[in-house]
Write a structure and sequence with these properties.
Shape: elongated
Number of helices: 8
Helix content: 55-70%
Distance between the termini: 51 Å
Order of helices and strands: HHHHHHHH
Largest sheet: none
Strand content: under 5%
Length: 177
């Protein structure tokens, strides 16, 4: 059985990956189920975990923010910069856990964010290096080692606060001037 902390991190990561378009909504529901089994329990989490795979595509967008908020976790708006950074950190943790090879990790980072996200720029460059081995003088193991170092850096990077999602004047936001 997963610890509640590990289940919360897994749910947060899956939420960030979903917001970035990296995984399906049903994967978020699976993470919610895992969180319940691990001992996390809130009304919103129960509602989210109760979704079927067919319902997930329609309901996760509305249910996820409440479930995460009840657990003290962050909802990253779809396509937000903070969400992209959280998704990159989640992918790094997946690679470090052995779910992705260094090459798959850099490919997904490069494909998803290109050279536009400063946090992952070096990984995009390393993906380019994988593509030109026959012309370069570095070994795959050297690039793999640098990718691992970048993944450790990303995984340890502090979580950025979420971007505001409400309208001016909502609680927690200053009124418009």
């Amino acid at each position: 059985m997963k610890s509640t902390e590990a289940a919360a991190i897994a749910l947060q990561d899956r939420a960030a990956l979903w917001s970035a378009g990296e995984i399906r909504a049903s994967d978020v529901v699976d993470a919610a189920c895992d969180a319940l089994v691990a001992g996390l329990d809130t009304p919103g989490l129960r509602v989210l975990a109760a979704r079927t795979r067919a319902e997930a595509d329609y309901d996760v967008h509305d249910l996820l923010p409440t479930a995460l908020d009840e657990l003290g976790l962050t909802f990253y708006p779809v396509a937000s910069e903070s969400g992209q950074a959280a998704a990159a950190r989640a992918l790094a943790r997946r690679m470090l856990a052995g779910e992705l090879t260094p090459r798959e990790f850099t490919f997904r980072i490069h494909q998803r964010f290109g050279h536009e996200l400063p946090l992952t720029e070096r990984l995009a460059e390393l993906d380019d290096e994988y593509d030109i081995f026959e012309y370069g003088d570095r070994a795959v193991s050297q690039v793999d080692a640098e990718v691992m170092a970048e993944a450790h850096r990303l995984a340890a990077h502090p979580t950025a606060p979420a971007e505001p999602t409400g309208t001016p004047g909502d609680a927690g936001q200053p009124p418009a001037r």
